[in-house]
Amino acid sequence: MLEKQLKKIRTKNKLTIEELSKACNLPLAYLKEVEEGKRELTSKALDYLLANLDLDEDIEALHFSTSGMGDKLRAMREEKGLTLEELGRHLDLSVTYLSEIELGERTPSIQTLQKISRYFNVPISLFLHTEGKLIATGKKIRMTRETKGMTQKQLANAAQISPGLVAQLETGKVQPSLKTIERISKALSVSVCYLILEQEDAEGIIAGITPELRELLFDPRVQMLIGHICTLDSEQLRLVLNFIHMLKEPALKEK
């Protein structure tokens, strides 16, 4: 995976880990843990590496999944009112090649992905999914389902999807569409943001806290609680905050 090759890549680009830390605006300690294989790259760091460093590996060799990329590319192209021929001229790519990418029949090279992301002015990570991300989403689905005492078949029936798809999602074998996520979140009575929110978006902040608290924040039970909070209205949230303040008040008075 890219994390395991980070030191080799930055050395090739003549960057010290301190320089990379400054360029990515990420804590030095966090990047050291990434190089040691203890942490995953954040989207911000991933975008910087793929967009600015000299990478000669293929996407598949770096263990990224481009599932759903074709749909995203087609949607962005159509939003701009471009035909495949017009986009091909802008990117200096053949119509056949672009068509195969949109149909999911071909995996683009990193260089092609750089061209596409720069043309549409979007981060490269928009198109990529690591195995870890898919597994994390699957774990959330499975944990929430089991907490509610539902079988995979019951969840499938409630979400109007096949039991086989539920099994594949829970094991991180497929990337769910937004429509599928919406159906599952409704069936499980949790917010969509809980299921799709990537914990790596908060890595830059979490990297600076203690290991004990970091581990607690990544506990599936804590994440499920955060997911439930996402579904609260303003009055319910106010009551929760007041309750937390009431619990903390005795400790604050002792200080």
From TrEMBL:
Signal peptide: none annotated. Keywords: DNA-binding. Residues 6-62, 73-127, 141-195 form the HTH cro/C1-type domain. One of its GO terms (molecular function) is DNA binding. SUPFAM superfamilies: lambda repressor-like DNA-binding domains (SSF47413). The keyword DNA-binding applies. GO terms for cellular component: cytosol. InterPro entries: Cro/C1-type_HTH, Lambda_DNA-bd_dom_sf, TransReg_Diox_bact_type. The keyword Cell membrane does not apply. This is Transcriptional regulator, XRE family.
